[in-house]
Amino acid sequence: MTMVKNGTEHLRSVRDGRAVYLDGKLVGDVSLAPAYRNAVASAAMLYDHQAAPANIERMTFELEPGRRVNRAWQHPRSYEEMVERRKALVEWAELTCGFLGRSPDHVASSVSAQYMGIQVLEDYDPRRAKAFRGWYEDARRNDIFLTYVINNVQGDRSKAFGDQGAGAEDMVARIVDEDSAGITIRGAKLFATSAIMANEIFVGSGQPLKPGEEHLAFSCALPMNAKGMKMLSRKSFEAHALSEYDNPLSYRFDENDALIFFDDVKVPWERVFIHRNTDMCRAQLHDNFAHVYQNYQAQIRLSVKLRFLVGLAHGVARTIGTVNFPAVREQLGKLASLAAIIEGMVYGMEAAGQLVNGYWMPNKHLLYAAQVQSQETYPQIVAAIRDLAGGAMLMLPSSVEDFANQDLARLISLTQISPAMSGEERVKLLKLCWDAVGSEFASRHLQYEMFYAGGQYVTRGHSYRTYDWKGADALGQRLMDGYGLEVKAPGQAA
Predict the structure, then answer these.
(1) Are 365 and 296 in contact (CB under 8 A)?
(2) CA of 113: how far to CAs of 68, 284, 373, in Å?
(3) Which is it for strands 229-233 and 19-22: parallel, antiparallel or unpaired?
(4) What are the start-end ranges of the E strands in 8-118?
(5) Which residue of 166, 232, 257, 474 shows the fewest CB atoms closer than 10 Å?
(6) What is the reported pLDDT for 229?
(7) 25 Cβ partners below 8 Å, 6+ apart?
(8) β-strand 67-70 against 200-203: which pairing, if any?
């Protein structure tokens, strides 16, 4: 019998007593809470999809006899295997239209790349490498939903993390004690996107640390119900979604973001991967393609999301009867090209990749170039949809309940006119558009897509560091080397 994780298993796994706080109260079972239950169900849907008999071969691979896991855990040995893996990730992203920014395949991609580059940890400390290997293999075998926190609380950005002043000692998660059993950590980390529906959390440092900050320099993994770990949830958009008809995206896909506070959390040594080493915190994410793999997954997901948004733009134009206007077609053509650029760059990352220690790695520069482009592209497409819709998204029925009132339903049918669909369908499409580009949920997604990988100066810095400047400079130099100050007569050979 072949075992594949399904949605029922995932729902059962999140009922573990985790401490999630919302509106001043401890939430309880997140799979039943009105603020989270639909998002949790959407995560379970992904696992049900991979477990469906018709999908198993595409979505999973055989890890060991009788056990298959999602292809996010796959270690591609060739370009062909990477393409096969990417197709599975695209299929998952299409189920959520790309709106689960930290779906289970995101952090699984990161830690899989760390495993493929385990030599980085081996060279640092074989004991910590053994701990990571044991944890990773268990996580992969159980196909768990991972999230991570690798950012520190902002505080006063003009000062170092350790110089925030009196009263800020617990602002950033740090080691406060250690003994033969493990380390104890206290303080906060950001951004725990999808933490409310994940199984475990990877804790690391994606931001540079300096000598003297060794107490901040650690990485580890913890179950979401670890004693002393508290999740402070941001506002739930799902809780405020009137209905699926009125808020189809926020009703289903509000993955949530949370601040994690470690209130003297004990981490056993078998879950500690970096211990008081500032440079290794950087190396664990950047010297083994972890940063590339996790952002490669993000660009795969984003390419689906952009395709969805461009489809909405086309739908708006059809709905209000402007799709054949030359200026509108020009705008739609531009949007289609922007979405295709990101998708094409994903293909380019794969095709221009290379074998590194026996594993196929995406092209690093094309990945960072895609990030630079996508940070600009996403807000452009959102703004274009708003421009194409004009006032169409503003004057919509207050809620689905208006259709239950016979008099109001008649007025809606008289005023919501479209050359392409019924009034009810018109309202449905425009409410979907509003939830995608105009609602509070949409605003969060705009912010997320612009900054989840860091500010533009960060991604542009990665692009600068990974570009082949030597090769580019050589082209001009080769041309200039072919001539000098001497003046040649007309027709004289060079």
Answers:
(1) no
(2) 19, 10, 24
(3) parallel
(4) 19-22, 25-26, 60-64, 67-70
(5) 166
(6) 98
(7) none
(8) unpaired
What per-residue confidence (pLDDT) applies to 242?
A: 87
Calculate ∠ Cα 307-429-334, nearest 5°.
35
Pairing state between β 359-361 and 354-356: antiparallel
The β-bridge partners of 148 are 202
What pTM, to 2 d.p., does this model score?
A: 0.95
315 CB-contact burial (10 Å; exposed 0-12 / middle 13-18 / buried 19+): buried
Mean of pLDDT over the chain:
95
Whether omega before 202 lies within 30 degrees of 0, making that bond cis, reads no
* SS3 per residue for 154-205: CCCCCCCHHHCCCCCCCCECEEEEEECCEEEEEEEEECCCCHHHCCEEEECC
Supply 209's token pair. Answer: 């640390």
Helix (H, G, I), strand (E, B) or coil at 118: coil
Reduced to 3 states (helix: H, G, I; strand: E, B; else coil), residue 271 is helix
Q: Among 154-163, 271-280, 478-487, which range has the highest average pLDDT?
A: 271-280
How far is 191 from 149, CA to CA, in rounded Å? 5
What is the pLDDT averaged over residues 16-39? 98
From CA 42, how far away is CA 48, in angstroms rounded? 10
The pLDDT of residue 169 is 82
Measured between alpha carbons, how far is residue 48 from residues 15, 56, 75, 210, 405 in Å? Answer: 18, 10, 23, 45, 38
Contact 194, 256 (CB under 8 A): yes
